[in-house]
Amino acid sequence: MEQITGLKTSDYYFDLPQELIAQDPLADRTSSRLLVMDRRTGEIEHRIFRDIIEYLQPGDTLVLNDTKVIPARLLGTKEGTGAGVEILLLKRLGDRQWETLVRPGKKLRPGARVSFGDGSLRAVILDVLDGGNRLVEFEYEGIFEEILDKLGEMPLPPYITHKLQDKNRYQTVYARYEGSAAAPTAGLHFTQDLLEEIRMKGVRTAFVTLHVGLGTFRPVKVDDVTAHHMHTEWYNVSEEAAGLINRTHEEGRRVICVGTTACRTVESAADQDGIVRAGADDTSIFIYPGYRFRVMDALITNFHLPESTLVMLVSAFAGRENVLGAYKKAIEEKYRFFSFGDACFFY
After folding, report:
1. pLDDT in tens, 87-100
2. What CA–CA distance (Å, rounded) separates 167 from 163?
3. What is the pLDDT of residue 163?
4. How would you classify the pairing of strands 298-302 and 255-258?
5. Adjacent-strand bridge partners of 127
6. May I ask the CATH class of domain 73-151?
């Protein structure tokens, strides 16, 4: 039986200079750098993202996550004291109720009330949930999404300290269904023009939806990878997308996932034989070395945080030593890391 290595969180540590964390998106989405690796040989090429088209073959299917980030970060004041508070929307639980992350938690116990902006939006804390999250009920007149668009800010990851000038730069150009607290960042490198060129080459596109939660940034706090409790996210795969992905494999072509969220979606929706089933469900799939991929044949992804579940997923696909070797090379070559950074293609 094959010995599985890389089951300690510390196996995924690498030293990343602070200055390589991209703070701002590039003006041209397709001009990011692209590190290309053949996972069988470990051979690396350094390209520009728009060159991705050269690595795609007619008949391949690109799987893209069309979730849309909501301006989920609300800054308000606690009624009665005027203390500044922050509420981050994580998951809609009902018409006016959300699971949220609040700061500072000590000030927001059940019964506390918060007012936002001009007072057109108010919140009452109903309960403390697992992990310290809060169940919140909002009070407002009109359409919640319109109020949120006016008062909310994009919930950028904690390692980005610059203010985002253009909200749309933290959305993919094909974002469609609102519900994410973070962007599926591998998709940020595509423009409509590049997608059109890719389709002209005979490459197909399948859209799936997975609403990205903030758990994607949660550090792994145990050293035994298998003991880590993965967060849950909601996904949906349409009949059309499932049919296209299954047909791609029947024809002997490749399914290429754009990002770890697209990967987690198709792998969650597949049966033991790799047949993708249409439908909506919650997934807490955790992919780390030893996992047998049923659907994905190649992966476009950004550079991820040390010791993160995302580095573990990429390592499960391309091999831990390959991935850490690629990251070492990227650091030497001064690639830009994380959400607004450069991309990799593992095939």
Report:
1. 999 888 988 999 99
2. 10
3. 87
4. parallel
5. 135
6. mainly beta
Contact assessment for residue 338 and residue 303, using Cβ atoms and an 8 Å cutoff: yes
> By the 8 A CB rule, do 76 and 112 touch?
no
> What architecture does CATH give domain 9-69+166-346?
3-Layer(aba) Sandwich (3.40)
Q: Residue 231 has what pLDDT?
A: 86
Per-residue model confidence as pLDDT tens digits over 27-70:
999 999 999 999 999 999 999 999 999 999 999 999 999 999 99
In one-letter notation, the amino acid at residue 209 is T
Q: 19: which DSSP letter?
A: G
Q: Which of 45-59, 147-161, 175-189 has the lowest mean pLDDT?
A: 147-161
pLDDT(18) > 50: yes
Q: Which residues make Cβ contacts (< 8 Å) with residue 276, sequence separation at least 6?
A: 237, 241, 242, 245, 246, 266, 269, 270, 295
Give the helix/strand (H/E) hosting 240.
Answer: helix 239-250
Map out the domains of the chain as residue ranges: 9-69+166-346, 73-151
Is the separation of the CB atoms in 258 and 187 below 8 Å?
yes
Going by C-alpha positions, the residue among 71, 158, 159 that lies closest to residue 116 is 71
Looking at the predicted structure, is the pLDDT value of residue 272 above 90? Answer: yes
Report the pLDDT value the prediction gives residue 1, as an integer from 0 to 100: 44
% helix, strand, coil for the chain, step of 5: 30, 30, 40
Judge whether 30 and 347 are in contact, CB under 8 Å: no
Which structure tokens are listed for 338?
A: 């994380």
| Rg of the chain taking only CA atoms, in angstroms | 21
CA torsion sign for 215, 217, 220, 226 is positive
Name the one residue in this structure whose structure tokens are 């795609």. 56
Full strand arrangement of the beta sheet holding 343-346: 43-48, 33-38, 343-346, 298-302, 255-258, 61-65, 204-210, 233-237, 279-283
Q: How confident is the model at residue 3 (pLDDT cuts 50, 70, 90)?
A: low
Tokens in use for 183? 């962007």
